[in-house]
Every structure is written in structure tokens, then in C-alpha cells.
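Class, study these two lines:
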Amino acid sequence: MTISLSTTAVTKIRDQIQKNGKGFGVRLGVKTVGCSGFAYTLDYVDGVQEGDKLFASGAVNIVVDAASLPMLDGSHIDFVRQGLNDVLKITNPNVESECGCGESFNLKKTNAVA
């Protein structure tokens, strides 16, 4: 199981944690929502809970809960410039399709949650 971050993502996330003034890292997850079924969540986290998987990339800790892990395995996190903004970009090999607005996604059948 892997989750990777680009150098840019490590820098941006580390900077945001420092601006927050506290935090162990960030929690990456998946929730049911939207027209395609799932959406990513990203929040500050102060520690690891039972059942979590910890990924360290550079100076950043990424925490993923057990339910989200199969849907996120192999994902790569980056920040890319879109217009005047830097936006989070997750490249996830488990995604079959995304909705037109890009806010939600559908999983390949082998990764779908029952």
C-alpha cells in the first residue's frame, strides 16, 4: 500500500501545517458524495488512531483510515497551478471516471465499496 507526494505537495502541506500552528500531519480519506459517488477529504490531524495507516513523505505525515485505504492505494498527491491558484491534484489509479466538475469520482469495479 502506498501514497506518495510530490516535492511541491510536501512543501505546501508542511507550510499549511506550520500556519495552522499545530498538527501531526494530514488525513486523506474518501467519503460518499456527489454525482459520481465518492469525493476526497483532506484535514489536519493531531495523531494516528487505531486502524489508521501512516505514510511519511519528506517532512509530512499522511494518515489514511482503513476504510479509505483500498480506494486510495497507489495515489499520488501534487499541487498544480490552475490559473492564479495552486490546487490539490490527486492521481488515483483506482478511479474509473470523474464527474464533469471534477469534485467526485467513481471507482473501478475491483475497488468499489459494497
The two ends are 20 Å apart (CA to CA). The helical segments are 7-20, 69-72. The beta strands are 3-5, 25-33, 37-45, 53-57, 60-64, 75-82, 85-91, 95-98, 105-107. The domain at 3-111 is CATH 2.60.300.12 (Hypothetical Protein Aq_1857; Chain: A;).
